Amino acid sequence: MFRSKLKSIILALAASLLALSLIAFPQESVAASVRGLNMWLEIVFPSLLPFFIVSEMLIGFGVVRFIGVLLEPFMRPLFRVPGAGGFVWAMGMASGFPAGAKLTARLRQEGQLTKIEAERLASFTNSSNPLFIFGAVSVGFFENAKLGIMLAAAHYLGNITVGFIMRFYGKDEIRKETNKKNISLRAALSALHKTRIEDNRPIGKLLGDAVMSSVQTLLMIGGFIILFSVLNQLLFLLHITPFFANTITFLFQLIRMPAELSIPFISGLFEITLGSQLISEAKDTALMQQAVLISLILGFSGLSVHAQVASILAQTDINFKPFFIARILQGGFAAVYTYILWQPLYTEVFDHEETPSAIPVSFLQNSTVQWADIGALFTICILAVYVMIYAKRMVWTKKY
Fold first, then answer.
1. Which residue from 147, 155, 157, 134 is spatially nearest to 347, judged by alpha carbons?
2. pLDDT at 355 exceeding the cut of 50
3. What is the reported pTM?
């Protein structure tokens, strides 16, 4: 009872402090809010929406169940999850955060995963997509395309390692999964047909539901991105970030990391894009030290992503705690892999190759501006479609 009351008081004080901070720093809050909105409008929404819609349609048509039957002999021994987890893993890598959590929750709602299997799957199917690692971090921030290969290798190796470790989560259920299945195309096709018949939604209804569900999820993601962008800025203005940076600086000295990286690291714990940018701008730091720290925050994913995933998983009975522990593990593994592979992979292999000077950053910067404009236009058009579908369904509901 006391802990519950204390929690209520702490939450109330935190919300009050946030409100007072918004009043005290209105201009800075608006600027941070606009920065988060632009990121969502131009990049996050247009890049994730197609994956979400197609995923919903593939689940409804039974394709995911078909893939699950085929991949069962592979995914079950390695990660202790059904074959459908292979689809979630691939889509999570291709589209990035928080697609893995979204699809895991969807399969749990479909009954294709048990609670323990869903918690295992969610723990290792959420990762940064290659476009962010190569385009935003390596080329955009560091102007070094070769660094992207190093970061991607460490990030996905850490992801696979977490998957192997999480297979031991929920030991009581392992004994129930001893039945071995062989790959059967006939069984997979039968499962696809059965799933489509059981769904029983017309194509138009299924497509409309896919758009509605995907846009609602992305609106929630956009809210978290804007909130944490503002929160990150306010923590810096209130000198809370520099305060914690002093403690981090002491820890960094023990592992021979420069103190200049302490504030960027704390920013990265909240939001990985801002943290990666600040790390790339840190002076008097070695590239390897920057790469190790970026691998750590990419693996951890940032509290902004954690909040997005927690909100998605809350719609089911999936526990968030395994996901949080897995992110800490992946951040640690990715940092260690970066340190271990730096000499043999980056220094020995990539450092001796000539970097083509013709692409470059000017081209990518110009193309980024164009794609940002297209992304914003695409987002606005889809939101207009969403409003029309929503309004039509509301009118239909009132009539019938």
1. 147
2. no
3. 0.80
